[in-house]
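Exercise 7. Given the encoded structure of a 562-residue chain, write a plausible sequence.
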């Protein structure tokens, strides 16, 4: 069930429009995203690389750079330990490439999702010691590896942590340097970077002290941008600039692996958007770490010839196709449990799928969350007990909720909207009961809120307005695509189209003399039933230009209807 509300934030929209030479509709959209004041509006609309913050503002940055420079001078052997998702792979690639560029003896280790689990573990520490690696640099992990880092220090090793995850009770491990903008006493102005964003900042500082040109530093922006979108970070503040600038670089990327990944997915590099990273390219990169080893994704980025890049890109696409099929099967089993096992009456859904591949738990949790709009945890049976992933709704802080019943878990971590965990099988019922006992959500919280930015008649849609809307891109979490709405719409004619017969094409009449093409990609059959009933509908939409056989026409893409 959905609740439609209209954003009612106020400002002098005509003045903003005049000051920035934009349509008043854009001024309203900007205000709805809490961009206030001329400086913020200027940065939002036209921010560029020159407005990225100095890496030296981050706590322990100077300490980390000094350590690394000494290690390089001393020919010490450095190991980067990353993670198996997009952010971890991109972080690893940035650190390995950057360190090698300034003369470091560096290798990498990406944990195996199944045998190693997330982040540092003692075996990885012992393996680094055995391989005579003097120094460990983590990326996208390490902030909660207290015991593991102590073990490394006891063995005489140097440890630098680069991470972006939440701190447990504000504590930090006893590493030689900890770079994480979420530390309470870190003066960095933006705490929302992903792991690759933090790694990028470390290399930017290291390059600066080593005299490497700024153009080489900025070459890493496309990888930081890819990770920012792939790790579903908020596209606000500095993240927005990183993604905006990184996408420009991706359109002309010199990375053979990324170019081949675009090719096998039938994408033109210059057309790649944040959407394509989130829903096409990113899942291929993630499939490597889910079903095989993330080292394949890393090898793709490292590829030096087209043949290897093409082979690896094809492998990743095939793995993602397998992942899709396995996910669909897992979602069907999860729905069956929700409907038949009383879970539907809970506030927090805890679903146990023992046969499900543990790497798919988070994706399945996300799908169930979308279907029922409840916080969802999906648990699977691993080699070392139960593992799981959670996906949340806006009014439920998942990490805080888990911290309130931490005695249930053997390990957990995450943030407001997502989390990972492990526990004993016999404690699954306790987890379900404790999460629901401590949950303070009310019935209204389980009704998804659709916020309408602007109720706007079709007659206001022009090519010029659609062109201006691109100033608001990239869209994603924290900077969602604008939602327009119009009621009392009559459908003059319609037809089902698409390879899978799941798209509805229509002619729409707004009752005020404007007829426009419409298309709906979601719940097309349900919308067709409403149309056949003869009733008018209210729709939320986004205006677009449809290009077909060299001809451009205006259309609206319908996202919701009532």
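Solution.
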């Amino acid at each position: 069930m959905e609740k439609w509300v209209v954003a009612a934030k106020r400002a002098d929209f005509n003045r903003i429009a005049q000051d920035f030479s934009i349509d008043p509709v854009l001024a309203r959209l900007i205000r709805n995203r809490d961009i206030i004041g001329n400086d913020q509006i200027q940065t939002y609309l036209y921010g560029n690389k020159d407005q990225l913050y100095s890496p030296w503002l981050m706590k322990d940055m100077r300490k980390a750079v000094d350590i690394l420079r000494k290690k390089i001078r001393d020919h010490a052997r450095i190991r980067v330990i990353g993670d198996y998702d997009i952010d971890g792979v991109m972080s690893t690639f940035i650190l390995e490439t950057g360190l090698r560029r300034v003369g470091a003896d560096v290798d990498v280790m990406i944990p195996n999702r199944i045998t190693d689990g997330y982040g540092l573990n003692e075996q990885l520490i012992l393996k680094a010691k055995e391989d005579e690696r003097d120094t460990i640099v983590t990326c996208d992990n390490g902030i909660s590896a207290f015991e593991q880092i102590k073990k490394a220090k006891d063995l005489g090793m140097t440890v630098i942590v680069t991470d972006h995850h939440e701190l447990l009770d504000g504590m930090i491990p006893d590493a030689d340097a900890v770079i994480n903008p979420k530390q309470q006493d870190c003066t960095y102005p933006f705490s929302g970077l992903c792991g690759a964003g933090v790694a990028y900042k470390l290399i930017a500082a290291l390059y600066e002290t080593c005299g490497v040109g700024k153009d080489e530093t900025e070459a890493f922006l496309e990888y930081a941008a890819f990770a920012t979108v792939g790790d579903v970070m908020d596209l606000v503040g500095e993240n927005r600039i990183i993604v905006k600038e990184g996408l420009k670089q991706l359109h002309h990327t010199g990375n053979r692996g990324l170019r081949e990944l675009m090719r096998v997915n039938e994408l033109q590099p210059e057309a790649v958007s944040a959407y394509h990273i989130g829903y096409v390219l990113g899942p291929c990169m993630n499939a490597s770490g889910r079903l095989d080893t993330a080292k394949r994704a890393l090898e793709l980025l490292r590829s030096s010839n087209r043949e290897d890049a093409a082979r690896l890109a094809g492998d990743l696409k095939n793995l993602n196709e397998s992942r899709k099929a396995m996910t669909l099967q897992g979602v069907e089993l999860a729905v069956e449990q929700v409907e038949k096992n009383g879970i539907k009456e809970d506030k927090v859904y805890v679903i146990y799928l023992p046969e499900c591949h543990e790497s798919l738990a988070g994706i399945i949790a996300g799908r169930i969350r979308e279907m029922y709009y409840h916080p969802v945890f999906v648990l699977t049976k691993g080699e070392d007990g139960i593992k799981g992933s959670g996906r949340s709704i806006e009014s439920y802080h998942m990490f805080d909720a888990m911290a309130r019943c931490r005695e249930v878990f053997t390990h957990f971590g995450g943030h407001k909207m997502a989390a990972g965990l492990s526990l004993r099988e016999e404690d699954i019922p306790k987890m379900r009961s404790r999460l629901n006992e401590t949950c303070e959500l009310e019935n209204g919280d389980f009704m998804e809120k659709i916020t309408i930015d602007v109720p706007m008649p079709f007659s206001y849609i022009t090519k010029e307005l659609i062109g201006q809307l691109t100033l608001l891109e990239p869209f994603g979490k924290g900077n969602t695509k604008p939602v327009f709405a119009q009621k009392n719409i009559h459908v003059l004619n319609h037809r089902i189209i698409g390879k899978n017969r799941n798209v509805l094409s229509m002619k729409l009449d707004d009752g005020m003399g404007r007829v426009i093409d419409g298309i709906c990609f979601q719940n097309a059959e349900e919308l067709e039933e409403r149309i056949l009933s003869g009733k008018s509908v209210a729709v939320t939409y986004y205006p677009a230009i449809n290009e077909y056989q060299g001809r451009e026409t205006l259309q609206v893409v319908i996202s919701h209807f009532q």
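Remark. The mean pLDDT is 93. Students should compare their own answers with the one above.
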